[in-house]
Structure formats: C-alpha cells, structure tokens
Write a structure and sequence with these properties.
By secondary structure, the chain is an alpha/beta fold. It contains 13 helices and 17 strands. β13 (427-432) and β14 form a beta hairpin. The chain is elongated.
C-alpha cells in the first residue's frame, strides 16, 4: 500500500527503513563532535566541552563498526512508504506538530486495509470460510474501526465503549465479537440487542445472559488442557454449559486463546475443537465456528538487526538498568503468513472445509503493523558521560505512558527517527519524559542518533499503533493525551486530519 516516496533522502520502499543508523559506514570511527547549533546554544558550555574532549579519543572503546561501546547498535524499523514520504517532506511533520502543540500519533489507515486483506487472502487461498475480527483493545482510533467496516472485517470488543465505537464506525452488530471475563449486564444486553457473537467465559455469565431472554449467538471459551489461565471454561464447566444452552440462545461454537506466538499449538488446539463442534452438533447445536484468538506475530526488524542485538547485548548500552525481557522484534513468519502456517499444519484447512466450520481470528497488533507512529518534540538536551564517554539525554514533551512497552519491564527497540534530517555525526542518546519520575524513559538504551538532537527537533517512534500508543496512556501531571492524526496519500500530496475520536 501507499505511494512511492518522493523525497530526496528517503528511498521509495515499503519493507526497508532508512531510519537513523542504517547503512552507516564502518570507518565512521570517531566519537561524535557535533556541537549545539547557534540557534540553540549550550549556555553552560559543559555539553560542548565534553564533546570537544571526545574528539581526541582514538579507536579504543569503539566497536568493529566504529560505534562507541556505550552505545546500542542501530535498530532501524521497517517503515511504510507513506511514512517515508512524511519523513522526507521538509515541512509537513513540523506543521502538524505546531498545530497540535504537543506529542501526537500519526495513523495510516490504508495500511490497516492492506493488512486486513492479507489475512482474508489466506482464507481465500486455502478455501477456508474465515472471518477477521480486529482486537480493538490494540488501538482505539476511529480510522482503524472504519477500515474494518470498509474491508469486510469485524471487531472484537470487550466493553460497552468499544462496542458503541465500533457501531459508530459502521461495523454491523452481527460482525462484532464480544470477549473478556465477567462481562457487565449492560454489555451483555447491548451485545444481544445488536446480534453480536458473545464468547462466554464463565457459567454465571451464561446464566445472566440466559436471564435476558433474548436471541443471541455464543461461543464457549475453552480453557486449554494444562493451562493455568484465569480465563475460559474447564472440561466440566464446558459440559455443563453445553447442556444448559437452549433457545433463544444458539451455541455457535468454541473459542480459545493461547499466550505466545506458536502457530503449531494454535493449529492443533483448533483441530481439537473441531471434534468438540462435531460432538455438540450431535446434541443438536449448530456449532459451526471456532475462534483461535490473536497472537499473530509482527516483524519490526530485519533478522540480522535482531540477531546482532541479541548476540551482543550489553549492560553498557543502557542509561539505567537494562530490561528483563523483550518482544520478539524479528518474527520470520508474521501476520497473515502465520495464519497460513496454522491452516496448513496437519491438514487443518481440509478438516475445516470438510466439516463446514468457520475459522475466526482476532488479530490486534498484526492488523496494525506499520499503520502508525508516535511523535514527540525535544524540549531539552543534556550531556552526561558513561565510562568517560559522552552521551546525550533528551527530554521530550510526552511520557513513556504513550510507549507502553516501557511499562512491562521491557524496552521498545525500533529506533526513533530524528526529524528534520540534517548532517551530523553518530550521537549516543537516551530519551526521557517530561515527568518527575526518574524511571520515565522512552528509550533507556543509548540510541545511535545520526546527529545531536536540538531543542525543537522531533523524534518519530515507528510502528507504534499496535498497543504502544494506547494501552497505558494516562493524564498523569494533567498532561493532555496525545491526539491521533490520520494521514492519507492524496492525488498530489499527503493530507492529514484529526481522527474521528477527536471530533
């Protein structure tokens, strides 16, 4: 999706990023000597002096690639073509930032459409009756829900707010799946009124739904054997629920959710539920649907980039204690390709076709791959030293609550892009937030920015639409929540508007 990049410095590719650090010459072996600009001087002169001293350093303390040992390796993300055009435009991103007046998120709904169609194509190619439900908890932008409505996808909701927002975006009630534990009476009633498919998580939830005396379709959420999850029905509860269901409630089938990203485990659990559907049919139920949930991996980084990070990981790269774990930022069989792996394993597609069973999926992050980024303005720059070598600490106008990976004892690894593009030298840089919390860092590791950042520059964190920008957002310090801007490729130029959730 998207149009060819038309900027002079960004290549027109939709799978390879020209983010900072990519393709840096191996002989760029000197510690950076870029000084504060005349427009933004360093009043104390301390930062300038530290970088001047660094000019005298030799190759000692540098990696084989000419990178200071206290600096993390470059982690350039894949970037969508429309975003490459935005980064290459010398004016547009700055104009949006000036208009918004604070941190903001940019959404690319055309990419959401592309991702939906990729999953749908796998179903078509395999001959499987399949349906895509977007996991709305991953992002609440109105433009994403609208893309679902326009491309024949449904939405997985877990609250009355999400259900109403999905309907407002044009998604029909019968194309909604309602999930989550211990659903409120209001949510059950509203879902039944709109003929949504409801995934039952507990016996008492089924009892409350039955008391409404409304026609409704349900799935029974299965607790997989050996799982310690707090969600789902165990074997005894499943049998009790199947026997209890009767008109006006229709047992449409079964669902499950697995942690992690194992395609084979999902395929084999789905095959198990085919047998359960057949047994339910013998008891007079329609049982024609299986939902395998989400957990479709996303590929943020090239394999070599991810391997280099994992194989050379060092505590020396971090301003504070390094994280305990990381999302698998390189995923060799991501998104729709993972769905293909699920349906082909042990002939699952044929099993579904032969028994006329619909396969439902609930991707969240995977439908948002490369569909949005988060933008922060640099408000301050400090220089510090580690092991005698200088690095910069930036303070931006937002918080890590808008980059939620930071709040799971982890780190969002794709490098931010420093805008505007200017010449300079590699500068190890970590990024702090505009709060009073010492731990509030958007990037704990020292990122190899291509030049020293200046006050007023923008940092663009790529591919944050999946959970990063929404799941932990907060009005802490009474800071406004970052708005969402929708970017589309017009016939002659890029055009932007505020997302419908703000209008």
């Amino acid at each position: 999706m998207g149009l060819a990049g038309d900027g002079p410095d960004v290549a027109a590719r939709d799978t390879v990023s020209d983010a900072p650090g990519a393709g840096r010459a191996a002989d760029d072996s000197r510690v950076p000597a870029h000084r504060p600009s005349p427009a933004h001087p360093d009043p104390s002169g301390v930062g300038t002096e530290r970088w001047r001293v660094a000019e005298s350093l030799t190759a000692e303390g540098l990696t084989a690639e000419g990178r200071p040992e206290h600096c993390a390796p470059p982690m350039p993300a894949y970037i969508e073509v429309i975003e490459q055009r935005l980064l290459a435009d010398p004016v547009l991103l700055g104009d949006i930032a000036d208009t918004v007046g604070g941190p903001f998120h940019v959404m690319f709904p055309e990419r959401v459409s592309h991702n939906i169609m990729a999953f749908q194509q796998v179903f078509a190619d395999s001959g499987v009756d399949g349906f895509v439900y977007f996991g709305k908890k991953a992002n609440k932008a109105g433009c994403v829900a609208r893309a679902c409505a326009e491309n024949g996808a449904g939405i997985d909701v877990a609250s009355t707010g999400e259900l109403v927002a999905a309907l407002a975006a044009g998604v029909r009630g019968e194309d909604l799946m309602v999930t989550g534990p211990a659903k409120s009476d209001d949510l059950l009633w509203l879902a039944a009124r709109h003929r949504a498919l409801i995934a039952i998580d507990a016996i008492d939830e089924l009892d409350r739904l039955t008391a409404l005396e409304l026609p409704v379709r349900v799935l029974l959420r299965v607790l997989p054997e050996g799982s310690t999850s707090r969600f789902g029905l165990d074997r005894m509860e499943l049998e009790q629920a199947i026997q209890a269901i009767g008109a006006p409630i229709t047992l449409s089938g079964f669902s499950f959710h697995l942690s992690g990203y194992d395609a084979i485990a999902r395929s084999e659990q789905a095959a198990t539920l085919v047998g359960r559907c057949l047994r339910a049919r013998a008891d007079g139920h329609s049982a024609d649907t299986i939902s395998i949930g989400g957990g479709f991996g996303v590929d943020y980084l090239e394999a070599s980039t991810w391997a280099d990070f994992r194989n050379t990981l060092s505590d020396n790269w971090f301003h504070t204690n390094p994280p305990g774990d990381y999302y698998p930022y390189h995923f060799p069989v991501p998104g729709s390709a993972m769905l293909g792996a699920i349906t082909t394993h042990n002939g699952l597609a044929e099993l579904l076709r032969d028994n006329e069973i619909r396969l439902a999926i609930e991707p969240g992050r995977a439908l948002l791959d490369r569909a949005g980024s988060s933008v922060f303005r640099v408000q301050g720059v400090k220089t510090r030293t580690a092991h005698g070598n200088p690095y910069d600490i930036l303070t931006v106008d937002g918080t890590s609550l808008s980059l939620s990976e930071q709040w799971f004892d982890s780190e969002y690894l794709p490098d931010p892009v420093l805008w505007p593009q200017r010449p300079g030298h590699l500068t190890p840089t970590c990024v702090g937030a505009t709060t009073c919390l010492e731990s509030d860092l958007l990037s704990r590791r020292r990122i190899p920015l291509p030049r020293r950042a200046r006050t007023g520059d923008l940092l663009v964190y790529p591919n944050t639409a999946g959970y990063q920008m929404d799941s932990n957002e907060s009005g802490f310090h009474e800071l406004p929540l970052p708005p969402k801007v929708v970017l589309r490729a017009g016939a002659d130029r890029l055009r932007w508007s505020l997302d419908s959730t703000l209008r």
